[in-house]
Design a protein that fits this description.
The complex is a heterodimer. Chain A is 27% helix and 19% strand. Chain A is of the alpha/beta class. Chain A folds into 4 domains: 31-106, OB fold (Dihydrolipoamide Acetyltransferase, E2P); 113-262, NADH-ubiquinone oxidoreductase 51kDa subunit (Rossmann fold); 268-336, Ubiquitin-like (UB roll) (Roll); 354-425, no CATH class. By secondary structure, chain B is mostly helical. The chains are: A alpha/beta, B mainly alpha. Chains A and B meet through β14, β15, α9, α12 and α13 of A and α9 of B.
Chain lengths: 427, 319
Amino acid sequence: MLKKSFFGLVIPQFEYERLPAVLPEAEKVAASKTITLFHARNSDQNRPASIRIGDKVNTGQKISLFADDPAYVIASVSGTVSAISPHTGDFGKAYMAITIDIAETETFDDQFATLAPSPTLENALEYLAAAPGSPPLQTLADSDKPIKTIVITGVDSDLLTGTRQYITGTRLNDIKDGIRILKNITGIDRIIMVTGRDTIQGFGHIGADVKSIDTTYPAALPPLIMKNVLGEILPAGQTCEDMGVCFMSAEAAASIGRAYAGGKLPVHKVLTLITKGGDRHLIQTTIGTPIKDILNVYGVAINEEDRLVFGGPMTGSAVYSLDQPVLPDTDAILVLDRSQAAYSSDYPCINCGDCVRTCPAQIAVNMLVRFLEAGQYEQAADEYDLHSCIDCGLCSYVCVSKIPIFQYIRLAKYELDRAKTAEATDV
Amino acid sequence: MFEQKKLIVSHAPFWHIGNRVTERSYHTMLAALPAVLAGLVYYGVPTIAVVGLSVATAMLWELLINKVMKKSPTIGDGNAALIGLLLAMVLPATMPWWAVITGTFIAVVIGKQIFGGIGSNAFNPVALTVAILMVSWKDLFDFNGMLLNYDFNFAAAYPLATAKHFGAASVSSFSIGDLLLGRQTGAIGATFGLGLIIGGIYLMIRGFIRWEISLTFLAGVYVTAMLFNIADPVRFAGPGFHVFTGYTLVGAFFLATDDASSPVWFVPMLIYGAAGGIMTVLIRNIGVNIDGVILAILVINLISPLLDKIRPKALGKVM
């Protein structure tokens, strides 16, 4: 963890993880007995289930909770469904956790293989939305918000994480195929590949416009890529999709490329494991592998009150169970000892202004947090630029009073969004 | 789901820079120590009484008000002790005990806690206290009268009063070197210019105070005093004299920079500091009061929230 320098005058700068030029192969970690898949769940549950405990599944088989459910997961192993239970994620997001006991012999599902020779946006949407990297195919298919530009990020948005960089370094051919297929199936010509400033060479043939960005945090967050690479400033309160820009990780592009080239749905996720000592391991594992299996392989002992974070140190989210599985978009797992992790406090803002000086979006965080603490979200959004926030977390990181500013901001955005949705549906 | 370990679930970010409010208070007190120790050398044992009483009662008032308001005690953050120390620094060494206790009451209870505690005070508690005490008991801040019984080995007249009443020529005997070394009468922690400057530089490079405020405050004093001096060299003393006498340095480094009552954006900080410096010299040279720092700081505290409206447009702001 970066500590402040003696010269407190200087605003701390975080450098993104930089992998060596010659990359070792990612270490393969297998799930031991079971894997768990998180299937997004809508509130409407009274329909006949199309998957039951005891059902046999093959690797690459598409699983939906109901026959006409648009959401689905892809079985990443062959085996028997042993449990289906509800699971609640961050901000009340509802899932069904489908647990599969791994069978001894692996059999592949061939449904996708018949479609692979003729890629279309429809069949990509049908089979690839749960592929490693979570390709945002739904966004691409949305006719309300036409996408004009696809940005493929070959850099990781959080610190200590080297996953996308690794994919960019080792699976360039898959990415190249992915870009070609994306161009064909979406008809979008403007595809931009974003990479770190020092790794710009060697992308000449990739078929996308290659741009480089700064190597200091938070340059790889989408709003800053929009600003620095595309030259478009994201208006407060709008999403990149509203602006016609779709962000996709390099792994998602590689998944698309690999799936159509090989006729087999990819089920292995690359991720960075950051252990308590700060050692980084690049791992390739099956989607759905419980985190305890990974930790066992690396001998990481977990004690009471430690923290397990899915994602990087600045924007990740902590999980409460060692059974939490690797998801298609899990780029990093950070293990923090209880003595390492930061605690927040209920101390008031002393108006020191450190947050204001560190904020990349130039928000008056000192005023914003006063409104957020009082629960006045509307006013915070109207007068103090809540929606300009790019979710980097630097304000919480520097806060002298250790106010959970970032959490307040997320909560406020979530509440405002909920109120907006409620208004829209309440006719 | 057997032998499940209990993990802590918290929100991002999972790192923290490690700054603490307590650290801020203690380092500011540390930076103030050279000036206080010089006060001890020049004014002797009574200094210990004033400083000790001031720090102790400030903390007691804080504890008392915490109890009365049924809040968890906040004296651990060191802010009350800091207020006590800073208040002692701007008092004469012979301040009577009851005035010190009244002073800390005003500073901690009226200056800080009734506004809502740390971070919510609209005015610098110490400046507010001195202003109230000055209005209530004018004689207590007449340094010539208060330090009458001392036998100094340097000119025993309060330089600012001399300059005000007898013109620039009367203070030509004060060399900058003497003023820097504290060879002038005044408040306990306000005379040793060198110590204050060292403390101030320490606070600025450590980031505990905002350099923009301190430097523009001093620049404001210097430039304004220089203009006055050019306009009428007989009546108004030179800029160096104004920077190193009275409360200028303690004001620039310790009072104007108070977190809660000063702006946080770059341009507002510059205006805030410069306005404070200009006001100081205006009050000193053409006002009734002998020293203008305290009143100038109260005025800039007042405009600080307005100044903070001058800020760059946030990313993607449409209007």
